[in-house]
Design brief:
This protein is mainly alpha-helical. It has helices at 2-30, 34-37, 40-56, 60-87, 112-153.
């Protein structure tokens, strides 16, 4: 029973890592803001994938280390993107249809569509960061079953 749960958590962690990396890539291409240039999604997603990989390979010491780093990445995602959401105000953007002389800009602070994408991506990063924290807490806690299995098999 515990082994199946550990595998599911590992696969979920690896899947979430892939989603975070792809979301970071999409945000980096479309939005140009300092919080995106830190690339929390890239290094956080890679760490989540490594945690899942070490779990499936039954390497508890490496898994615990990368799980802790994945939790830190999730905490950074929640912190940075929560702060970013609190500073975004899409309601203050004047739509281009209201001002025919307004030029279409590629900056999210002056484009209502990009501002909506900014908010949506930030909320997704916050949700994925919370999931990363929770999933990696359970993975690190279940590492004792890997250690127990190894001692019993020798």
């Amino acid at each position: 029973m515990g082994d199946k749960m550990l595998r599911r958590l590992a696969v979920a962690n690896m899947f979430e890592g892939c989603v975070v990396v792809l979301l970071q890539l999409a945000v980096l291409i479309t939005l140009h803001d300092w919080v995106d240039f830190i690339c929390i999604g890239f290094w956080g997603g890679v760490l989540m994938g490594m945690t899942g990989m070490w779990t499936l390979q039954r390497r508890p010491k490496r898994m615990i280390t990368t799980a802790a780093l994945s939790m830190l990445a999730g905490l950074c995602m929640v912190g940075f993107y929560s702060w970013q959401v609190s500073t975004v105000d899409c309601a203050s953007i004047i739509s281009p249809t209201a001002d025919p002389n307004a030029r279409k800009s590629s900056n999210w602070e002056s484009d209502a569509d990009l501002c909506s994408w900014r908010l949506a991506s930030d909320v997704l990063f916050i949700i994925l960061g919370c999931l990363a924290i929770g999933n990696n807490i359970f993975l690190a806690a279940r590492a004792s079953t890997l250690i127990g299995d190894r001692r019993g098999s020798r």
